[in-house]
């Protein structure tokens, strides 16, 4: 933030050292040439200067690895270019031999360039300052400077103003005021520039610090909302995101405006920062500039978003290496998020100081009344070490934590209980007192009781936990949590860092607990009041991903942490074991619901054997909902909720003694009777003939409403003499659109349907596949919605359905349509994911289960179903799940005789064929395994 540039680390041409002398020699040597030739010569010299300057700036970044030195070098090079152009314009092209009072000009850098820092792709913002209105001479000088800048392909922003213009416009516009706040003299009339600065301070800045601060903070909120509200988004904006460079700029603008300092180091003397906080500011600024400069150099443009494909490259450029189970890119991004957190801490410090500075004494009577009310509220806090500053919770003095380190936890307990904000000075003191969190405090029963109360509070535990995390207390008190602070997972599925995900999950659970999510999560809302282990549920959710980033399976490692931490937190042995079980199995319900056939009795029996008790089933259902919901925006949808509810209800039946063969037959009979009642307008003969067309699994899997729709759909198709037909329907609650397809059954049917969906841009999330006793296939394909409005969505679905019908009739070639739509996935180079094929004959009694996982791409499901069709396998059901860049597709298959695939040679052929689907797109088929029961 200083105007002073670092001493150049590498030599540059003479033009940089003394641009005015360099221009004089250059143009003197071209004395006999005309103006156009001189301009061309000048542009060529400046082009060389810029190229050399960029090369030397990159060398600084690669050698000393200093982002700020790189930014200062680029600014110094640009200074030389502007000074040289001013000298050429006023000394050679439009000299004023006997200048009048109006023929004066000052050229200043403003905006980011005014701070003396430029990134490789930054805009160059200039102010051409005149004493009065612009003259013809002034217009010629400005043009003769701007045209070469444009010829040099520089993104130049400029303004031409008189001193009076600057003052008038700065009063009216905060953006202009901010730009002038950082104006830096480059060339021309220094007296004129100094006059503008003097008047700006006296006529604009004086007495307006509060208004400027409020405007800048409001502007920051708007900017952050645009870039993403969390500083822990996994593809952050380095310039405009929360915790990015613009936040540091805003802090310095406010501090400079309020404290009238010119350099950030002066803020220590002004009392705003202590030495440690100044170092934090400078360290954060250096790191963010290093990242930003590399982003610009790598992309060759002003790229500010640290996207997945650039994270690896920037990490490698800066020099990060892998360590302790973390990839280089994950270590780099953790460093980035820790810096973003530091920037957030600095923001709170500055805001608190300015708030205290701007408070005014109230009138005597109001002050007395307020004091009386405040004393009552302070007594209500229940502890003498705490008080209120304004409406915020604070400690009575700076030794409160030294006297009793448990007060570090009590602070947040009271804030949670009384719904109070914590005064920034007190949050700052917490961070400075983290050394008090020793092993003794971690094992103090009262401290752990308080922490458990905070974690399980019904009133906004997410807010308080986030405050604890931002102060550094949470990671110190629970060191295993400290290991995942600012840790990102390098994939497209998780939107937040691990610590932010865990805290958000607690927030979702608290909403379910309070009953505010009934419409979105009806089952979780219904069973939450009935759980016996509420505390265990909160602790398990807080710990479920706490072992991420370790070489071993995070679920198993997390369970060990839970067994160690449970007794410390005061949980009973039974509660501790429940927590450990939930952590170890926290992915099971989601995996089974999304990738297994829930109509297969073996699926439910296996899951029930894992869960064992109804209480665990309840806890796991609620934990799974909160976990998925906290992954990120758009990850949770009604379709996943429907799958989880189906799995819950089916498993509940087994755990309460149902699902025997007799019970299953009785359930089929009841479902058939219910449908008979729904079809009361049919003759008895028609009803019985229709019911005989379906095998038992159909009656178990399909709910009554859909059974009736299917019956009427088949009846209408039959009356119309059609064996191929489609119908579409939207489902707002589940967030899907259903395409039901009727066609003669054959092995390649699902491939044709998935191909038509892929060609039309339909993202398939599930497929229910049934064959009738008379050889027709009745398939229901669920695709995720593309439009909010039903009429738009139905038009799109109608196009997909029409394509399916035409393909089934042989009127179009699906392979050609898919090939036209398919493009190389842009993330293919960013994410490396070895495909994996699991062939399992244990998961189902009647089918072989093929689980295929690998890098997702457009048309992948079509390619897989086509390959399975060519292998002469019948697909009984398909379950499609996508986790960011990873696709996990599960197919229940048999051979053409409806038998399982038990031959080793046949399994190897299946494996080879499916791996080739990924190799076709250049994927590396590095991993596959086959699971076969001992008897097979």
Mind explaining what this structure looks like?
With 936 residues, the protein is an alpha+beta fold. The chain is built from 42 helices and 16 strands. A nine-stranded mixed β-sheet has the order 8-9-11-10-14-15-13-12-16, sandwiched between helices. Strands 3-2-1-4 form a four-stranded mixed β-sheet. α3 runs antiparallel to α4 (67-93) and α18 packs antiparallel against α22. It is globular, with a radius of gyration of 34 Å. Mean pLDDT is 86; it is low at 1-11, 360-376 and 921-936.
Mean pLDDT: 86
- Supply Rg: 34 Å
Sheet-strand content, in percent, reads 5-15%
Low-confidence stretches: 1-11, 360-376, 921-936
**CATH structural fold name of the domain at 726-931:** Alpha-Beta Plaits
Q: What is the CATH class designation of the domain at 726-931?
A: Alpha Beta
Q: From the 3D coordinates, which CATH architecture of the domain at 726-931 would you assign?
A: 2-Layer Sandwich
Which structural class should the secondary elements be placed in? alpha+beta
Contiguous helical run count? 42
Oligomer: single chain
Strand order of the largest sheet: 8-9-11-10-14-15-13-12-16
**Judging from the principal axes of the Cα atoms, what is the shape?**
globular
Pfam families: ACT, GlnD_UR_UTase, HD, NTP_transf_2
Organism: Bosea spartocytisi
GO biological process, one term: regulation of nitrogen utilization
Catalytic activity: [protein-PII]-L-tyrosine + UTP = [protein-PII]-uridylyl-L-tyrosine + diphosphate; [protein-PII]-uridylyl-L-tyrosine + H2O = [protein-PII]-L-tyrosine + UMP + H(+)
């Amino acid at each position: 933030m200083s105007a002073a540039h670092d001493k150049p680390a590498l030599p540059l041409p003479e033009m940089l050292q003394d641009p005015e002398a360099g221009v004089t020699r250059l143009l003197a040597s071209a004395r006999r040439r005309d103006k156009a030739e001189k301009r061309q010569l000048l542009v060529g010299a400046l082009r060389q200067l810029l190229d050399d300057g960029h090369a030397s700036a990159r060398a600084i970044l690669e050698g000393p690895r200093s982002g700020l030195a790189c930014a200062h070098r680029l600014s110094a090079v640009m200074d030389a270019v502007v000074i040289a152009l001013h000298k050429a314009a006023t000394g050679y092209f439009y000299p004023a031999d006997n200048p009048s009072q109006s023929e004066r000009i000052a050229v200043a850098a403003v905006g980011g360039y005014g701070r003396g820092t430029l990134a490789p792709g930054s805009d160059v913002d200039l102010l051409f300052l005149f004493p009065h209105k612009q003259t013809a001479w002034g217009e010629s000088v400005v043009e003769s400077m701007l045209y070469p800048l444009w010829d040099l392909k520089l993104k130049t922003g400029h303004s031409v103003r008189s001193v009076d213009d600057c003052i008038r416009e700065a009063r009216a516009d905060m953006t202009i005021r901010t730009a002038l706040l950082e104006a830096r003299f480059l060339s021309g009339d220094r007296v004129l520039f100094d006059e503008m600065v003097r008047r700006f301070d006296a006529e604009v800045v004086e007495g307006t610090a509060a208004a400027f601060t409020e405007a800048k903070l409001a502007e920051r909120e708007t900017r952050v909302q645009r870039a993403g509200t969390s500083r822990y988004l996994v593809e952050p904006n380095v310039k405009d995101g929360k915790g990015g460079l613009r936040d540091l700029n805003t802090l310095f603008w406010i501090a400079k405006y309020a404290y009238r300092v010119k350099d950030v180091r002066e803020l220590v003397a002004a009392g705003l920062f202590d030495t440690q906080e100044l170092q934090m500011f400078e360290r954060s600024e250096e790191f963010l500039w290093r990242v930003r400069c590399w982003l610009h150099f790598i992309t060759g443009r002003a790229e500010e978003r640290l996207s997945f494909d650039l994270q690896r490259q920037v990490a490698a450029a800066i020099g990060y290496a892998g360590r302790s189970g973390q990839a280089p890119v994950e270590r780099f991004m953790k460093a980035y998020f820790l810096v973003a957190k530091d920037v957030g801490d600095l923001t709170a410090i500055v805001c608190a100081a300015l708030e205290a500075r701007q408070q005014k004494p109230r009138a005597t009577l109001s002050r007395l009344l307020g004091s009386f009310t405040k004393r009552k509220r302070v007594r209500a806090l229940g502890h003498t070490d705490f008080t209120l500053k304004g409406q915020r919770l604070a400690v009575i003095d700076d030794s409160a934590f030294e006297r009793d380190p448990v007060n570090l936890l009590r602070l947040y307990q009271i804030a949670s209980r009384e719904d109070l904000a914590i005064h920034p000075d007190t949050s700052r003191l917490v961070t400075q007192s983290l050394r008090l969190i020793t092993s003794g405090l971690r094992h103090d029963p009262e401290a752990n009781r308080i922490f458990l109360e905070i974690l399980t509070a019904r009133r906004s535990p997410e807010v308080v936990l986030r405050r604890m995390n931002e102060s550094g207390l949470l990671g110190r008190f629970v060191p295993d949590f400290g290991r995942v602070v600012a840790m990102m997972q390098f994939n497209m599925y998780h939107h937040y860092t691990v610590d932010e995900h865990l805290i958000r999950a607690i927030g979702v659970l608290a909403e379910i607990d309070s009953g505010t999510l009934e419409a979105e999560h009806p089952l979780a809302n219904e069973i939450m009041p009935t759980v016996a282990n509420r505390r265990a549920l909160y602790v398990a959710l807080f710990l479920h991903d706490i072992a991420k980033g370790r070489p071993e399976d995070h679920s198993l490692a997390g369970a060990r942490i839970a067994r160690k931490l449970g007794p410390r937190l005061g949980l009973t042995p039974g509660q501790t074991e429940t927590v450990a079980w939930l952590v170890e199995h926290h992915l099971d319900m989601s995996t089974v619901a999304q990738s297994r056939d829930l109509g297969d009795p073996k699926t439910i029996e296996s899951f029930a054997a894992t869960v064992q008790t109804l209480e665990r089933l309840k806890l796991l259902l609620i934990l799974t909902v909160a976990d998925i919901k906290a992954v990120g925006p758009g990850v949770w949808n009604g379709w996943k909720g429907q799958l989880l509810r189906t799995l819950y209800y089916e498993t509940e039946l087994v755990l309460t003694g149902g699902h025997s063969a007799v019970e299953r037959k009785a359930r089929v009979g009841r479902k058939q009777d219910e449908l008979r009642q729904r079809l009361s307008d049919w003759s008895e003969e028609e009803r019985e003939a229709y019911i005989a067309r379906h095998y038992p699994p159909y009656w178990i899997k399909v709910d009554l409403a859909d059974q009736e729709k299917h019956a009427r759909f088949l009846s209408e198709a039959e009356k119309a003499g059609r064996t191929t037909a489609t119908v579409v329907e939207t489902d707002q609650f589940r967030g899907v659109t259903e395409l039901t397809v009727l066609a003669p059954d054959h092995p390649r049917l699902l491939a044709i349907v998935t191909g038509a969906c892929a060609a039309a841009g339909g993202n398939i999330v599930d497929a229910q596949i049934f064959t009738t006793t008379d050889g027709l296939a009745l398939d229901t394909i669920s695709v995720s919605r593309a439009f909010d409005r039903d009429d738009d969505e139905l038009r799109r679905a109608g196009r997909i359905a029409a394509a399916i019908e035409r393909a089934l009739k042989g009127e179009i070639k699906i392979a050609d349509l898919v090939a036209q739509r398919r493009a190389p996935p842009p993330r293919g180079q960013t994410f490396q994911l070895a495909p994996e094929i699991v062939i399992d004959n244990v998961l189902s009694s009647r089918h072989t289960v093929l689980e295929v996982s690998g890098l997702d791409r457009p048309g992948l499901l079509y390619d897989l179903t086509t390959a399975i069709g060519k292998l002469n396998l019948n697909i009984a059901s398909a379950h499609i799940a996508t986790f960011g860049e990873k696709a996990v597709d599960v197919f229940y298959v048999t051979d053409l005789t409806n038998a399982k695939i038990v031959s080793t040679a046949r399994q190897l052929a299946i494996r080879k064929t499916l791996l080739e689907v990924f190799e076709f797109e250049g994927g590396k088929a590095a991993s596959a395994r086959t699971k076969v029961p001992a008897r097979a």
